[in-house]
Every structure is written in C-alpha cells, then in structure tokens.
C-alpha cells in the first residue's frame, strides 16, 4: 500500500483544483445576496479562475521542469490554500474575484505537474494503474463539484466551498513532503515569459471585452484592440523563439488545430450554461444549493459513465466518428434544454442535461488521445497542455459569450434596469418585495435561458462540423510513438472528464 501514497498526494491536489472549476456555480445566488454583486461580478468569479489556469499551465510546466516538479507542486498547493482562505473571508466581490485569480495561479502550478509527478513515481504496469486511478479521480471531481458545493452552501454557507480546501491542502502538503520524490527535466526548456505575458494579456482583454459588452463604447473597442495586438505579439514571439511555449508549427496540422478549437467549443457548449441555469433554479424556482447540484448531477454522471465505457473501444473506433457524434449529441442536449417557459420547473432540463453528458463522454477521451497522437510523440506533452489550455479558455469565453446572450434575453423581457438586478442573482429579493412582478421575472429568465441554450447548441454543431471536415479518420496512426507517448495519451485521455 505504501507505494500508492504518492498517487494519493497528487490526486488530492488534482481533485481540489478541478472541483473548484464548477463548485462555485451552485453558490452564486448565495454569494450574490451577501456581497450584493452585479452580473459581471458573478461572471468574473467563475471566469478568472479558469482564465488564469488556462493562461499559465503551459509556462508553469516549463518552470517545474527547471526548478523541480515537487517544489512547484508544493508552491501551488500552498498558494491554492492561501487564496482559498482569502476567498472564504472575502467581504466584497472585488476581493473574491482577485483571490480567485490567485487561486488559478496555484491551480496552474498543480495541474502542470501532476502527470509528471505520477510518471516519475511509477513505472511499468504500476504507472498504467496510477494514471487510470488519476483519471477516475478527475472524473469524479466533475461529478462531485456541484454536489459538494450544494452541501456546503446549504449547511454551512457559501464561504465553506473555499474553506474546505484548507484541511485537504494541509494533508496534501504533508504527504507530498513525506512520500513524493523530487524530479526535474535534465534538459529543461527556457521559460517563455514573453510568450506567457502576451498570451495572458490577449486572453484577459478579450474576456473582459466579452463580459463588458457595450460594443460601441470606446473602452470595449480599446480592449478588443489590445487583445488583437497582444495576440499578434504572441505569434511573433513564438515564431522567433527556439523553445516556445507553444510551437506554432503544430497548428499547420489541420487535424490538431481542429481538435484544439473543438476542445474549446466543447467546454463552451457543454458546461458554460450551467452558471445561468443555477441562477434560475435557485433565485427564481427557490431550489436550495444542494437541490440545484442534484439537478445537474445526471450530466456529470452520464459523462463519467460514457467516458469509462469508451475506453474499451477507443483503440478500434474512428476518433473522428466518436468526437463528431459526441459534439452533435451535446448540441442536441443543449437544444433540448431550450424548452424553459415562464411556468416551467427544473425537470424540463433533465433530458437535455443527460444528453449533454453523454455527448461529452463520447468526445472527451478520444479528443485528448487523438490530439496528442496527431503530432510527433516528442511534442505530446505540449499538445496535451495546449488542449487543456484551449478547454479552459473555451469555458471562460463561453461564460462571457453566453452571459451576453443571457443578459440580452433578460433585457428584452424586463428592461435594462431590472435585468441587471436579476442577472446579479437578486431575483429572489425582487420576488419577495414585489410579488406582482413574478410573471415578468419568470418570462425574463425563460427568454434568457432559451437563448443561451440555442447558442450553446450552435456552438456544439460548429464543433461537429469542424471535426467531420478537418480531422483525419485515424490521425493516431500518423506517427509512431514509443511507450512513453502512449502513457501520456492514456493519462490525458483518462483525465479529461474532470479537466
């Protein structure tokens, strides 16, 4: 049993960081009531964590190769714990948002090192078992996030969704110090700080512009211009570096590029709408956080079950067929949820949520394994990191884009002033003080959610078209791969349900 303690230490951190991607959703109405948030505030509470995680994970991996993976993992754990404490004690939305950003830095340090630590701790058959267990834990994190968030928020308050990380972090730090050996890359790449900085600025400016809206305003236009300039600078920097954060020559592979974009579209289509669904269920329908978490559980469970089953046929089925079909099922599931009417209750979205989970389960494992198999084995780590980055960016951009759609639906039915209050999680307060507004509030949320699900369905359909048009039937056969590459593919594929 002692040989598995390093795996336990690594899995504890991975579970925490992945749970924190979704655990916030069911606590949004409670946060909104206590902190008196605006609609953009709620978006940033979710988005900044995913955005920072996506922006830093590739570069932090290079830092870990140079400084030591265990050291960087420990730094990430301690930073994650400290920022979780700051989140739990926050007395304003701005402090909470800033702490979530720092939490994303810690999560990036942990996420970038977990696979390498497992690989260096185990070999042969034990390594395969360890990666399988790690993937299962990550998948469980996706299913557990809404439930854990609901239980903590209902019985202890929303602050405990962050404070619960403290004892887990302490245990993980102690175990890591005692049982995990240090490892480094004997020939590490140089740290690409200019690439990291330009990429972060581009992603942050674009996300801020999407959340802000007001497309004719000078500030939004300036943000878009900054995003374009920073992206151009990133491309220029990466082209000139001998050891770039992202080798842009990989993007000449149509299959790989299509898979990266599909990874982003999958996250946006499948998961980003759940924040707005949670607002409706709790602030309008009056469900408790735990009840709201249970409503979305069919999505997580079906994704987990189908991902596990897919592993048995992954090697003998066309990945293009699995991924493309999965994206179509996600689109169908999103469209099936666009049935919310002023008198609807939560059961109306259950069939669509289950379909979304099935589609995600079909797509996730083959998406990861095919993306890494589409490039030369020596670039498998970079390919896996790039896919994780795009998936987190897709989630962040999805929150921003669907947020604009949701707000537009609210404004169409309720007007700008009331829409701002409703979108900020204050629908329960409005209904308590003005019961006569109930029909208007229900119609506004129905309009907003239906638009969100229709747009999400369109995003999923675009992903399916990309896969069927650009991904080769069997890209995994394009490059011979040694055993290490196969293990990396298996690890990334196993982890995708939670990532």
Question: What does the model show?
Answer:
The protein is an all-alpha fold. The chain folds into two domains: 2-192 and 241-495, Up-down Bundle (Growth Hormone, Chain: A), CATH 1.20.1250; 193-240. 78% of the residues lie in helices and 0% in strands. The protein is built from 19 helices and no strands. It has helices at residues 5-22, 28-35, 39-67, 69-89, 93-121, 124-155, 160-163, 165-179, 193-212, 218-240, 254-270, 274-284, 289-310, 319-337, 350-373, 380-414, 416-433, 438-470, 483-495. It is globular and about 70 Å long. The two termini are 27 Å apart. The model is unreliable at 475-499 (pLDDT under 50).
CATH architect. name of the largest domain: Up-down Bundle
Separate helix tally:
19
| Secondary-structure-derived class | mainly alpha
Write down the CATH class of the largest domain.
Mainly Alpha
- The overall pLDDT average reads 85
